[in-house]
Design a protein that fits this description.
Layout lengths: L5 H7 L1 H18 L5 H20 L1 H18 L6 H24 L5 H13 L3 H22 L1
Length: 149
């Protein structure tokens, strides 16, 4: 957390401070039975708070807009071709293989577990491969169930 002066913090929170002051003043005026509390409340929320927001919150809004714009550009995807999908799956598969290797190197997996999981990953490189693998496993399970019966 960075240290900032009270003035910097006041500038960063100017809109919140203004709305709190407006609320406090009109609420005090209401409780003390002054007749001008309603016009003050309306003027405060319709004029003062928006003006303070326009004066002091521009940088934050611009930064937020820039962040939102960069995030939307990053999330914006063009229609993916089969080649793009297989490349993405290959990258995800490579990450999974790296994680698997790390777990094996740390001793979390036995040799048999590592080999079985690696074979499974290599068989399911693309979504189509994964669907075929699920179908084969489903058929194999049914065959085992029939053999047991």
């Amino acid at each position: 957390m960075t240290d900032s002066s009270p003035l910097d913090r006041a500038k960063e929170n100017a809109t919140e401070i203004a709305s709190t002051v407006v609320t406090g003043v009109w609420l005090a005026a209401l409780l003390l039975d002054f007749g001008w509390w309603l016009p003050l409340m309306l003027f405060g929320y319709v004029v003062v708070v928006p003006m303070v927001s326009m004066l002091f919150d521009d940088e934050e809004e611009e930064e937020a807009d820039e962040r939102a714009e960069s995030e939307s550009e990053a999330n914006r995807t063009e229609p993916a071709t089969d080649r793009d999908q297989s490349e993405d799956a290959g990258e995800g598969n490579a990450d999974a293989i790296d994680r698997l290797r790390t777990r094996y190197a740390e001793g979390d997996l036995t040799d048999e577990q590592f080999e079985r999981k690696l074979d499974k990953l290599l068989e399911t490189e693309t979504p189509e491969d994964a669907a075929e693998w699920r179908e084969r496993e489903h058929d194999r399970e049914h065959a085992l169930d029939r053999d047991r019966s």
